[in-house]
């Protein structure tokens, strides 16, 4: 969505500043030293550069002006009209048009002079041409000085326009001057609008924000409108009219029933009827203000009739709202009814917006996107939450305990109140025995400070010492039992040797594998020339370990894919000899491996192209199309698989051409 | 006061600091000194710019002072009545100054007949041939030097076609050809961008005239049909002479004064 922020437009310098900026930049950013003796080409180049540089700078600056100022046709009609009311569209367009023409003229001048500079035959001539070129460009800018000044003024004013978002939920307050519009605004929002007891206190639109049911509403205070022909209305009133005409908002029409604003109810009713075409298709609330001065019941019979008339008019477009939501009374002084007015306006606006959204064409796109799961009951059994009895008991106990626990304050109350009761500080000491709590602890004993002799973890240390001693004793006992290796029999010795040999063998093998593995990828089994990992070998080795290999072998066989039917029938060799099959099934084996590596699909998940509610797709064809588009979008990128910035690279740390030989007077990157 | 006018709003809510006026006054008083310090300190283009601005301000100030003095000092009112003064009852009558126009045209006719022009620039600096032409070397070994290129602004007629380049003696580069001139009407005191019809005379010699070279002082003929000048006999004037007053090759444009 377009955000309307006119605060970001850059400052438009006035004509003189503009020229100063550009010329001093040319002076600073282009070379300044030339001599007569230079080659003519160099001289021409020097001055051409100045001319071109100046032109580009002018072009850039003027372009930013043209681009940053909003085009009145392209922004929201509300802003378009507001800007037209405030600054006059024709004038605005003319100013921008002049800037545009100046830009083109400057480009043309630069082009002409660059062409002429090509024929320059002396420093003097080139310089004269440059001076003429810059002078003419500056003259062009000087001519648009008034336009620039005008644009700058507009920029400053636009930056201070309230930031109204024309598309959000909006509540619009309108009515005669001095009826209490701004007072209401101050009550429901934090916008600090001026309130004074005279007409036209508010001279422009004011915006504030308020909350209703966790949604934010934008409240707009408008200047008062008088009942007069459209052409006679001044700029201040036209602001209100613009807002009324273009914002799709809830409208609060304020009526001052006490007449203290200086206008009778009849006048206000006339205004209502003259601008009622602006209330079309908008939730309209008629608010009778200042009931503290004149209660609704006290107004005269004719006035009542007028109010009823207005109410009837408003009910026509009420779209099913009740009467209480169309005509409300309030007093901003006593704050009576203020909230109900706000709530009525907000709720009616919300209803209308939801309804409009439901009617719109895009509603299906929105509905596809969300899904509220409504689980169907499986059967009629009621499944209540199950809380174990133990927990319930614990909870009950906790509750009673919570109740029972006496605070220090309760104790104080019981024992005579403040000043009489003195709380015991020792009560909560954590000691081994409770009776120790009240013990009297001496500080000095036999002329020594007791604290000096206290070691808080003496018991721990004692325990440690005891443990150590135990260990020592055990060691001594063990020493007596242990004997040397002489006790082993010959057979045992052999076994030990065999174990050690095997261990060494394994370690060596592992080391060998490790050195190789570091810089070589794992070789696929297809190329495993040694045919080391066979069932036969497994059986052999297992039986060597004294285990029964049959079950392991069976398992391996069951895991391996059964042989497919061969092409030649007469090769009906049914033996499940895995070792022999390699030749015949090389291809299949490879394929089976690749298949085993593909992601296994969960059966509980629907296939990718099937529409899940809340996905945002109409049907599966649409989803399929979207998936396809998504896949093709990165196909090219994937295919190229170029080196990206995320890839690790090691640059050439010492490029040869920079580290060999001597450095001459030439370039630094060549030797 | 609009909502975004935070400066005004703040002023309105909290007022000004108690010594605001005093500070403002002091700041203003200091400003002069600050400015002068800056003016003395800055050098180069910045210094020049400041000096120029100061000078113009000073001149303006003097002029206004003088004007005030004039209004104060008593002077005798002018007694002599202007020549063309009319009594009030005749003022809204249409008057004709035909006589003057007639005499003007007669004068011009006479001048033309005498073949002598009284022009705004009676004398110009003669331009040497080396300055006017650049030698172009030609031939396979670049030894031949009979070709020349005109280095000044030129005018060629609309239907102009070059001679075969091989034999072209004088080259008039297309980048230096001009078709329009900024012509000032000395009596109307305004300038028009007019089309050039032809070269009447170049003060440096007939050869340059025939080549269409425009230097300072050259008399050119311009198309004044846009101006809507009318001869005494009621015909619309089409071509008129004008004299070039600047160096077109240095300025990149032709400025001329209409000869009336
Ligand atoms: N007694 C009474 N006075 C009110 C009430 N509401 C507003 N006023 C007074 O009416 C006067 C005008 O109030 P504003 O809120 O400035 O009126 P407005 O409609 O914004 O006026 P403009 O901005 O000039 O169009 C102020 O003096 C308020 O104190 C009300 O409910 N009761
Ligand atoms: Mg107000």
Automatic annotation (TrEMBL), chain A:
- Which GO terms fall under molecular function for this chain's record? GTP binding
- Which residue numbers delimit the OBG-type G domain? 169-350
Residue ranges of the region described as Disordered: 516-671
Origin, by domain of life?
Eukaryota
- Basic residues compositional bias: what residue ranges? 654-671
GO cellular component terms given for this protein: nucleolus
Q: Sorted alphabetically, which Pfam families does this protein's record hold?
A: NOG1, NOG1_N, NOGCT
What residue spans carry the Low complexity bias annotation?
595-605
Major location (coarse)? nucleus
Alphabetized, the UniProt keywords read: GTP-binding, Nucleotide-binding, Nucleus, Ribosome biogenesis
Where does it reside? Nucleus, Nucleolus
One GO process term, biological-process aspect: ribosome biogenesis
Concerning its family, UniProt says:
Belongs to the TRAFAC class OBG-HflX-like GTPase superfamily. OBG GTPase family. NOG subfamily.
The task this protein performs is described as:
Involved in the biogenesis of the 60S ribosomal subunit.
Q: What is this protein called?
A: Nucleolar GTP-binding protein 1
Q: What is the lineage of its organism?
A: Eukaryota, Viridiplantae, Streptophyta, Embryophyta, Tracheophyta
From TrEMBL, chain B:
What's an example Gene Ontology biological process for this entry? ribosomal large subunit biogenesis
Q: Which InterPro entries match?
A: NSA2_fam, Ribosomal_Se8/biogenesis_NSA2
Q: Which parts of this chain are annotated as the region Disordered?
A: 1-48
Q: Where are the transmembrane segments?
A: none
N-terminal signal peptide: none
Q: In what ranges is there compositional bias, type Basic and acidic residues?
A: 7-24
Q: How does it assemble?
A: Component of the pre-66S ribosomal particle.
Report the protein name in the record: Ribosome biogenesis protein NSA2 homolog
């Amino acid at each position: 969505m377009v955000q309307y922020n006119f605060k970001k437009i850059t400052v438009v310098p006035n004509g003189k500043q503009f020229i100063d900026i550009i010329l001093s930049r040319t002076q600073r950013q282009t070379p300044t030293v030339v001599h007569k003796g230079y080659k003519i080409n160099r001289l021409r180049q020097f001055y051409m550069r100045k001319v071109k540089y100046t032109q580009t700078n002018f072009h850039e600056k003027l372009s930013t002006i043209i681009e940053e100022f909003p085009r009145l046709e392209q922004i929201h009609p509300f802003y378009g009209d507001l800007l037209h009311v405030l600054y006059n569209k024709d004038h605005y367009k003319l100013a921008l048009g002049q800037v545009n023409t100046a830009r083109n003229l400057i480009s043309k001048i630069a082009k002409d002079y660059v062409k002429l500079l090509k024929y320059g035959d002396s420093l003097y001539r080139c310089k004269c041409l440059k001076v003429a070129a810059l002078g003419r460009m500056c003259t062009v800018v000087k001519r648009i000085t008034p336009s620039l000044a005008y644009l700058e003024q507009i920029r400053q004013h636009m930056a201070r326009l309230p930031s109204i978002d024309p598309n959000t939920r909006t509540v619009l307050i309108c009515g005669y001057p001095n009826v209490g519009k701004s007072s209401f605004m101050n009550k429901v929002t934090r916008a600090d609008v001026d309130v004074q007891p005279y007409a036209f206190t508010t001279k422009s639109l004011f915006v504030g924000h308020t909350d209703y049911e966790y949604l934010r509403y934008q409240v707009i205070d408008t200047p008062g409108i008088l009942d007069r022909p459209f052409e006679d209305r001044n700029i201040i009133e036209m602001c209100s009219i613009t807002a009324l005409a273009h914002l799709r908002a809830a409208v609060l029409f304020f009526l001052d029933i006490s007449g203290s604003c200086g206008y009778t109810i009849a006048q206000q009713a006339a205004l209502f009827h003259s601008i009622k075409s602006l209330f079309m298709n908008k939730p309209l609330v008629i608010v009778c203000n200042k009931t503290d001065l004149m209660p609704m019941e006290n107004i005269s019979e004719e006035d009542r009739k007028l109010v009823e008339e207005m109410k009837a008019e408003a009910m026509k477009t009420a779209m099913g709202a009740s009467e209480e939501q169309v005509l409300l009374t309030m007093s901003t002084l006593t704050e009576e009814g203020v909230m109900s007015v706000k709530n009525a306006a907000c709720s009616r606006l919300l209803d209308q917006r939801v309804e409009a959204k439901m009617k719109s064409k895009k509603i299906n796109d929105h509905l596809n996107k969300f899904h509220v799961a409504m689980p169907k009951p499986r059967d009629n059994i009621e499944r209540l939450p199950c809380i174990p009895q133990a927990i319930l008991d614990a909870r009950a106990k906790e509750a009673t305990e919570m109740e029972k626990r006496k605070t220090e304050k309760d104790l104080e109350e019981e024992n005579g109140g403040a000043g009489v009761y003195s709380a015991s500080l020792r009560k909560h000491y954590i000691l081994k025995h409770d009776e120790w709590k009240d013990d009297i602890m001496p500080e000095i004993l036999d002329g020594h400070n007791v604290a000096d002799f206290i070691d808080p973890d003496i018991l721990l240390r004692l325990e440690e010492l005891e443990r150590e001693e135990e260990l020592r004793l055990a060691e001594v006992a063990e020493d007596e039992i242990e004997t040397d290796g002489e006790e082993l029999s010959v057979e045992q010795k052999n076994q030990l040797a065999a174990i050690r040999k095997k261990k060494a063998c394994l370690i060596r093998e592992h080391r060998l594998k490790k050195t190789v593995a570091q810089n070589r990828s794992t070789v696929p089994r297809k190329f495993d020339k040694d045919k080391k990992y066979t069932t036969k070998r497994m059986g052999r080795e297992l039986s060597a370990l004294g285990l029964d290999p049959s079950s392991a072998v069976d398992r391996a066989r069951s895991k391996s894919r059964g042989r497919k039917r061969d092409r030649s029938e007469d090769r009906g060799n049914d033996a499940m000899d895995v070792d022999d099959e390699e030749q015949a099934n090389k291809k299949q084996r490879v394929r089976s491996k690749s298949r085993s590596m593909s992601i296994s699909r969960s059966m509980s998940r629907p296939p990718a192209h099937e529409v899940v509610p809340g996905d945002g797709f109409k049907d599966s064809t649409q989803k399929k199309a979207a998936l396809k588009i998504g896949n093709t979008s990165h196909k090219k990128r994937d295919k190229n698989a170029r080196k990206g910035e995320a890839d690790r690279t090691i640059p050439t740390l010492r490029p040869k051409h920079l580290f060999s030989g001597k450095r001459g007077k030439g370039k630094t990157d060549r030797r | 006061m609009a909502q975004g006018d935070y400066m005004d709003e703040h002023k309105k809510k909290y007022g000004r600091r108690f010594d605001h006026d005093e500070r403002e006054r002091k700041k203003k008083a200091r400003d002069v000194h600050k400015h002068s310090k800056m003016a003395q300190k800055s050098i180069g283009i910045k210094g020049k710019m400041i000096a120029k601005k100061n000078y113009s301000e000073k001149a303006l100030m003097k002029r206004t002072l003088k004007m005030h003095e004039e209004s104060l000092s008593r002077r005798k009112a002018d007694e002599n009545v202007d020549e063309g003064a009319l009594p009030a009852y005749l003022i809204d009558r249409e008057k004709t100054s035909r006589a003057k126009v007639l005499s003007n045209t007669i004068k011009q006719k006479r001048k033309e007949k005498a073949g002598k022009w009284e022009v705004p620039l009676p004398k110009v600096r003669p331009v040497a041939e080396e300055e006017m032409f650049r030698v172009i070397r030609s031939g396979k070994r670049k030894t031949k030097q009979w070709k020349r290129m005109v280095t000044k602004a030129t005018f060629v007629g609309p239907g102009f076609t070059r001679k075969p380049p091989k034999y072209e003696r004088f080259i008039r580069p297309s980048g230096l050809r001009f078709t329009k001139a900024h012509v000032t009407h000395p009596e109307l005191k305004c300038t028009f961008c007019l089309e050039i019809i032809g070269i009447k005379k170049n003060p440096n010699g007939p050869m340059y005239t025939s080549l269409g070279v425009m230097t300072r002082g050259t008399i050119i003929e311009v198309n004044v049909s846009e101006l809507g000048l009318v001869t005494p006999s009621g015909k619309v004037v089409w071509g008129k002479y004008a004299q070039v007053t600047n160096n077109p090759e240095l300025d990149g444009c032709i400025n001329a004064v209409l000869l009336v």
